[in-house]
Amino acid sequence: MGRRARDRRRQLQPQQRRERSGGGGGDDQAGWAGGYPEIVKENELFERYYREQRIVPDGEWDAFMAALREPLPATLRITGYKSHAREILHCLKEKYFRELQHLEVDGQKVEMPQALSWYPEELAWHTNLSRKILRKSPQLERFHQFLVSETECGNISRQEAVSMIPPLLLNVNPDHKILDMCAAPGSKTAQLIEMLHADMNVPFPKGFVIANDVDNKRCYLLVHQAKRLNSPCIMVVNHDASSIPNLQVDVDGRKEILFYDRILCDVPCSGDGTMRKNIDVWKKWTTQNSLQLHGLQLRIATRGVEQLAEGGRMVYSTCSLNPIENEAVIASLLEKSQGALELADVSSELPGLKRMPGITKWKVMLKDGQWFEEWKDVPSNRQTQIRPTMFPIKEEEKLKAMNLERCIRILPHHQNTGGFFVAVLIKKSPMPWNKRQPKVHQKLPGKTEDTEVTATNADDGSEDATEKPTLAEDEEPKKVQELQNSDTEQSKKGVCGPPPSKKMKLFGFKEDPFVFLPEDDPLFLPIQKFYALDPSFPKMNLLTRTQEGKKRQLYMVSKELRNVLLNNSEKMKVINTGIKVWSRNSDGEQFGCAFRLAQEGIYTLYPFIHARIVNVCIEDVKILLTQENPFLSKFSSETQRKVKDMAMGSIVLKYEPDPEKPDDLQCPIVLCGWQGKTSLRAFVPKNERLHYLRMMGVEVFKAKRKEGESEGKTEEEVQCRPAQTEEGMDVEDKERDAVTKMEAEIDEESPHSPVESSAMEIENKSEDSDQFSTNTNSHISQESKDMNTNNVKD
């Protein structure tokens, strides 16, 4: 019976396939591509709306619409603060790009990647290469594998070009305290971290980045992105940006409110500037999206300027072209500030970037096409959808003083990018409703390392709450109605006052605690002795994620983030902070120290280590990275001599470039290693191994082949085995699966494109689950719950 049923199914399958594809072949299938119905890139309401708003210069409308219908070029950014950034750029230009110069695929010459003219030091590039083309040539496939592997190492970030603009306009210095209000998925956050570490000789910059996102699930993706950069100066938190709490810090024994020097306010938006990559926007676009989001955007921006320090700079940005989400929000914020804020003139910054000035006149349209030019024209039954803050300022003098033309709008056809909006705000004085600075006069008693301070409400219109152990998913903030009814009455009366307070809510699960090591903890003394740590080593900044039992991992944060953590543990939901510097080794105690060095934090630790350092030559480095557990006899005689009398255990392997050998790698390398009785090995994640080998000129490309085929090796194709998995890695297999699952779910939320996808997917959203390295350096304590996100956020 089962066999007959299978035979019937086999007979029906060809017929069913023909029916699903339109009943026939050839022309009947013209409406299908890759299994998805073709999306017509037309929207009459969209064209009517933006023609009327006049955001496009006269005579450029056809070019504007034509650009929107073209696929978006893929862009990449070379991580700027790494000491080997120049080596990566040299490798790209002299090796991979040179291979593409005269390459032809299917009779067509491959278009060369181009540097973004406005991005400093040629560290950002764009290309039109599609995934289909990449598969047709071994040279292109090798280029693609290079990009994927370097992205996982954190040396390259795949990010949309316009998305790189806001962090550049923040003008970050290494001592700045920075808040990223809506940070996920984290590409802009990564830029901010790079700017903090502009001087790689300073392991602990005085500044820090607090990266926030309302979506608990996307916070873990944000952790994954930030962790690639191995910085002790990043903290990921989970709050509603419109009610993010005031934090307090200890300043000379007193608690003071923390104000930020720089704030990035990249708010959720309707995303019609992303039509080139999210083509579903073509059929889903309506003015209703911007009307619903305007209130939320204004609340988030208002909360941002409240927490900005005087003289500080906040960048407001959206991936939308709509003035309701852009100029209307900025104009309302400026009007309420009564001179406390001003728009900065950034016309001289980022030379080479083509931009349009902000507009001063616009209209409001309902989704049915009905226009309104003034608030007084809106009927009462529409006043829940349309708010007075959506309309332009009518008083000419006040409007002129706002300088809205200083806003920046990026149009897609000017430089082959997506659409974008940026405004840079400077805070000259406290906000009118905050003229009296919040007073916190708590004198801190002599406190121990694990002191927890409960926060009090501040005088800035925000309300703080104590974290609950668990909050259900259905307690997500109401997305539309609650966020729209804040300032209507005040705007009617022309009264300027504080925005209505909104109670802070916490999401997801309670994280494992962050426990700082007490000064007298006996755990640290053997470590200090074994590695001969410098007396200046800031041991008070070491922390663990457990209060009981054996401490398996030791993490480290900067002194400034330690201050934030100790004084805000009850009011702030911290998802992740710190980098792993030591990991417990099951056999380590017999070698004098139970903790071995972790590669993730070696560049932070190295300046403080004075023992167990072995300088190796470039040939030794190649052996360490290509062989799993090589015998000591394979290394140079100099290396053998150095380790001969050294006790077994964890060591530091340091390569210093030789200026007299310009053909060799010209950037230093620091690796974590282990010395055994007769062998010497490196504990380095696989993708990091491949990165160093590429920089040394060793070809590590591995062509795809059938499973079971023998693995031949040549000098030009070194097949590196996967890096040894470090015992006690902070991420369990199920936690890595959780991150991969979350990435896949986030990808599913994006519209499916029936057209050919690009070689590098924007914002580092991986195309396959294997994009996530098995050595993901985040310490996740719980899988996050699903949360539906409908708003587009670049």
TrEMBL record:
Compartments, record wording: Nucleus; Secreted, Extracellular exosome
The protein's name in its UniProt record: tRNA (cytosine(34)-C(5))-methyltransferase
Active-site residues per Swiss-Prot or TrEMBL entry: C319 (nucleophile)
Major localization class: nucleus
Species this chain originates from: Gallus gallus
Example GO BP: meiotic cell cycle checkpoint signaling
Biased composition annotated in UniProt, kind: Basic and acidic residues: 465-481, 706-719, 731-744, 782-794
Enzyme class: transferase
Keyword tags: Methyltransferase, Nucleus, RNA-binding, S-adenosyl-L-methionine, Transferase, tRNA processing, tRNA-binding
